[in-house]
Amino acid sequence: MEAKISNETIRKEIAQYLSRLWRYGLVLSHRRDVADDLVQATCVRALERAPQFIAGSRMDRWLFSILHSIWINEVRAQQIRRGQGFVDVDELVGEEHSDDPIWSNDVMKRVNRLPEAQRNTVFLVYVEELSYREAAVVLNVPVGTVMSRLATARLTLAQDIALQARSPQFKGEKQ
């Protein structure tokens, strides 16, 4: 029999992941207010479904999956409300909010230009340090899809000459 976790323990665990959830919500939506709403909805759903969480499994992966599911459902609902019917979330591209000239911000700008599926995968694997398998569970896709998205994202970023020209590695090679 699988061990269940108490509601109080769930609340404490969720509190530990709030900033990471908010950051993922911001990556998905590119809006602070929407990230706040996503985190709140994630917390509510996690508490409602606390009996489904199995003690010993990864709480962060479970919470990221909930947040991702809420985001996908909201995007699809918005498209339907606008009369655009069902769309693939990969078609949506968010706004960029950073004009800071620091190199890491340039990288983030370019990452934000990636298609949403690639951007989300990059975030989960490289920022949140989920394994390919864990990211696949969160995104509800096969592991091979995660690997493909990462490879495509890396290729896209590597081909960005402006990024390469500003990279500290490449600056050191030019003499």
Automatic annotation (TrEMBL):
InterPro entries: RNA_pol_sigma-70-like, RNA_pol_sigma-70_dom, RNA_pol_sigma70_r2, RNA_pol_sigma70_r4_t2, RNA_pol_sigma_r2, RNA_pol_sigma_r3/r4-like, WH-like_DNA-bd_sf. One of its GO terms (molecular function) is DNA binding. The keyword Glycoprotein does not apply. SUPFAM superfamilies: Sigma2 domain of RNA polymerase sigma factors, Sigma3 and sigma4 domains of RNA polymerase sigma factors. Keywords: Sigma factor, Transcription, Transcription regulation. Gene3D superfamilies: 1.10.1740.10, Winged helix-like DNA-binding domain superfamily/Winged helix DNA-binding domain. One of its GO terms (biological process) is DNA-templated transcription initiation. It holds the Pfam family Sigma70_r2. Residues 15-79 form the RNA polymerase sigma-70 region domain. It comes from the Bacteria. Residues 106-157 form the RNA polymerase sigma factor 70 region 4 type domain. NCBIfam families: sigma70-ECF. Belongs to the sigma-70 factor family. ECF subfamily. This is RNA polymerase sigma factor sigM. It comes from Buttiauxella agrestis.
